[in-house]
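Hi Q.,

Before the meeting this afternoon, I wanted you to have the NAP prediction in hand. No need to reply - just skim if you have a minute. The sequence and ligand are here:
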Amino acid sequence: MTHIAFIGGTGPEGKGLAYRFALAGHEITIGSRKAERAAEAALEVAEHASGSTVRGVENADAARDADLIILTVPHTAQPASLPDLNDAAKGKVVVSTSVPMEFGGGRAAIVDLPEGSAAEQAQALMPDALVVGAFQNLGAAKLWKDAAALDQDVIVCADDDDAKRTISALAEEIAGIRAIDGGALANARYAEGITALLVSVNRNYKKTTGIRIVGIE
Ligand SMILES: NC(=O)c1ccc[n+]([C@@H]2O[C@H](COP(=O)([O-])OP(=O)(O)OC[C@H]3O[C@@H](n4cnc5c(N)ncnc54)[C@H](OP(=O)(O)O)[C@@H]3O)[C@@H](O)[C@H]2O)c1
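Predicted structure with the ligand bound:
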């Protein structure tokens, strides 16, 4: 059992992943800027994943107490929020789920970040953490939906091989998920970009889509 903290875990993506990892038997802490909001979200996740223990605290306390940290804040929140968490994240695996996306002209597009991706931005802002990019292509609605198998791949990108293995194994604890080694953290920009494409595909087909890589087995 791993103690997993979600920074900004009160939003749909944080609660969805927290639900899946609570179902898998992990100890979950939901982080928020406000302890009361964290407590409310923790209760929601605990009720959905019956039998689990989920608590809610402020982000800094969540990061300090956990073994593993998952960032589920919008990318625009990263520059102001992440540097304060660097000490608490020292030597820990920190997962970046963020997609730096904006909507305009009737479509979703990726925002160019100077670091190349939200994951690399997170690493620059938390230099003492071992940042891994993952879960960017998993939509929150399906994560939250009644433990249904997801039948999707999760691309895992990291510069640290042990951290990549840890998150690949964690991802595969979600029903129907296969982890794919996406290479270095710099490749996270491509995984993030796929989500902007999926937004258009979802709109065109009126479905919630995901990705599968073929040709491996
Ligand atoms: N939603 C999806 O289907 C999906 C899919 C793939 C990837 N993602 C990625 O997952 C991340 C979370 O997505 P989401 O839809 O759950 O996002 P969200 O609801 O917009 O935000 C999540 C939480 O982040 C915190 N937050 C918001 N603005 C903040 C700020 N300026 N400073 C600090 N904290 C702030 C809020 O928590 P408090 O107010 O409680 O602090 C909020 O509940 C995003 O980076 C997104 O790109 C989402």
